[in-house]
Amino acid sequence: MNGKEKVEEKEKRKFDVSSWYDRNYKKLLFLSLALLFASVIYIAVFYFFHHDFMHKDVSLTGGTSITVYVEKPINTRELENFLEKELNKPTSIRTLQDITARKTIAVVIETTADSEEAKRAIEKFLGFELTQENSSIEISGPTLSKSFYKQLIIAVILAFFFMAIVVFIIFRTAIPSLAVILAALTDLLGSLALCNALNFRIGTAGIAAFLMLIGYSVDTDIMLTTKVIKRRGESALNERLASAAKTGLSMTLTSFVAVLAAYFIVQSTVLKQIFFILSAGLFFDLISTWFGNASILKWYCEKKGLK
Question: Per-residue pLDDT averaged across 49-58, rounded?
């Protein structure tokens, strides 16, 4: 195959991809909307059964967090079942591991029970006394925790609201602006639904991660919308979409790999919570941006003749 034939073959492949996208972009949009719809339904059902939007840890509900430093592994499932039966209170247990030595170094027990009652129950299961040398206890009051939770939720709502205002100011067009906001909403609700489905308990660090996710969500969407809407005289519509996809996918995949790797590497439960939510949000952002937002923009440009 000579050079000219190679160029023609390459152009043919480009045309095939572009033609396939022209035929199927509305189906891709449906997948993004289906994800948003499924997330809303799941969260609504979750609220109906649990009377809240998420599984909260003791930093948001108030309670006791006891960290026990151990020299040998503990059967956390047996410990959790024992404590829930003994205390008659919801209890969650996490282990902290030393990744270099590949062994458990501590067990974190979180419960809404009284600290002394929880301490006695743990000592009964472990068979030794908890002291300042082999454990640490943190207590948070329910009133303060609930007040802090409300303030954090208000902060997330306000951040989303002001983000929406900025997007409308930048583009000054309803449909493209709503597409950006819809993509960000899909990332947030999809991440929250996944956390609930996996019984992932969210604390103050998790709420902060959702705030960070708003910024992560809109950067690629703003870049995509800018290239498609504001630079329409530079090239054809599909070429602008492809150019934006190369840049945007590189940005999102790089961030996704970094935070996912960090989730498996770090031992801090606070950092794990942040990295898990960011990883979930970035994954959903791939769908909401390139299946949802990009398809809405293509549909909008074709209707308005902005090719």
Answer: 88
Lowest mean pLDDT among 28-37, 123-132, 188-197: 123-132
Q: Provide φ and ψ at 51, rounded to 5°.
A: 60, 30
Q: Are residues 31 and 48 in the same domain?
A: yes
pLDDT above 90 coverage of the chain, percent: 41
- Residue-number span of the structural domain to which 136 is assigned: 63-140
**Average pLDDT in the chain:** 87
CATH number where 116 lies = 3.30.70.260
Shared domain check, 122 and 268: no
CA distances for 271 relative to 19, 128, 149, 211, 279, angstroms: 44, 30, 19, 15, 12
- Which tens digit of pLDDT belongs to each residue from 86-113? 888 878 888 877 767 677 888 888 888 8
Residue 300: phi, psi to the nearest 5?
A: -65, -45
Helix (H, G, I), strand (E, B) or coil at 120: helix
| Strand residues in the chain grouped as ranges (E) | 63-69, 91-98, 103-111, 135-140
On the 0-12 / 13-18 / 19+ scale of CB atoms within 10 A, 234 is exposed
Residue 23, CA distances (Å) to 18, 27, 32, 61, 300 in order = 9, 9, 17, 50, 15
Q: What pTM, to 2 d.p., does this model score?
A: 0.81
Same domain, 40 and 175: yes
pLDDT for residue 1: 53
- The predicted-structure confidence for 282-298, as pLDDT tens digits, reads as follows 999 999 999 999 999 99
